[in-house]
Amino acid sequence: MRQLKVVAMMPHPDDMEILVAGTLLKYKAQGHEVHVVIAMDGRRGRGHLPDSVSAEEIVSIRHAEARRSCAMLGVEPIFLDLEDHRLIEDRDCYEKVITVMEQLTPDVIFTCAPNDYHNDHRCLSRLVLNSAWAPVFFADTACGVDFNPDYYVDITEFMETKLAMARQHQSQFSEDPKEMIEIVNRFRALQCRRQEIRYAEGFRLYKRFEWVKAYELLPHDDYELPEKIVPTTERN
Ligand SMILES: [Zn+2]
User: Which Gene3D superfamilies does the record associate with it (predicted)?
Assistant: First the structure.
């Protein structure tokens, strides 16, 4: 496959790590160009920072955490710095999203699911769809609630790095995010029922005219085909 430009358009600092980092690491390992765009400035994600820390300081802490994490992916994040928890579909927000799309000219885009739990996630999902001219994959929702993937990416090899990236967001996590990430990605792997797949990320393709075969753009695997297909009735 030719080198693809892969763009993850994610809302808050830490969403990329939880939802798509394994897939982005896999794209990188397969020689593709990866960009990470973080839409929101993170000012209302106080996490466990004390009240004495100002909103401006939170923004700068969260930028630094995102940079440290993205360095493990080998990319410099692009910050749109839209006001946290206040995203709406207005002209200014749309301009910011479409401008970065025009600059990056992606071949494939990853963003949040339109039914994800947070308004910024749902709104960004719509803004991305309305400004994208490349195929869009929706990432899993928070803890997989009401999300049934179409496609699965085996991220077993990249799980340790994904966890290390998520842990860079120290201001957000009072507990290690390992358990939450492992459970979701292990569950998605179990759905694949392949021994080699220990962890997987799940995605839905936004099925639109011309994009329906975009699953071909997902990172590839070289699994051996099974020797034979055993009927379900014989293996329970
Ligand atoms: Zn978020």
Answer: LmbE-like (3.40.50.10320)
Q: Residue length, the chain? A: 236
Distance 52 CA to ligand 1 centre (A): 23
Residue 231's pLDDT is 83
Burial tier of 182 (Cβ tally within 10 Å: 0-12, 13-18, 19+) = middle
Q: How far is the CA of 216 from the centre of ligand 1 (A)?
A: 28
d(CA 12, CA 30): 26
Ligand 1 centre and the CA of 37: distance in Å? 13
Which parts of the chain register pLDDT below 70?
236
CATH superfamily of 5-235: LmbE-like (3.40.50.10320)
Give 229 Cα–ligand 1 centroid separation in angstroms: 41
> Which tokens hold the place of 151?
């496609």
Domain boundaries, the chain: 5-235
Ligand 1 centroid to 156 CA: how many Å? 24
